Fold this sequence. Notes:
Elements: H1 3-29, H2 37-47, H3 49-69
Amino acid sequence: MNPKEHFLMLQLLFKQRQAIRILLNMLKSRGVLTEDDEKAFSFAQTHHVQSNAALFDEAKGMYLDLARSLEVVTGLENMPKPPLDCFEPPKS
């Protein structure tokens, strides 16, 4: 990857961590988080196939928008949609 591509990845990671930090702080300040929340969060990451597929499409669109703004050619515009089994929990 070239420096622009690395910067794109860094920006995406930063934005993700920023959003998560804001949400966690909001939940903590309202006393919403419980001890079971981490397990529930982990479960939701891998067991809601349709929701995760839709989220992937949204993230891809955001990624492409950000890449275009940084003048990074990704080649992802023509990438076919991944199959739904891509979003299923890992098989043991």
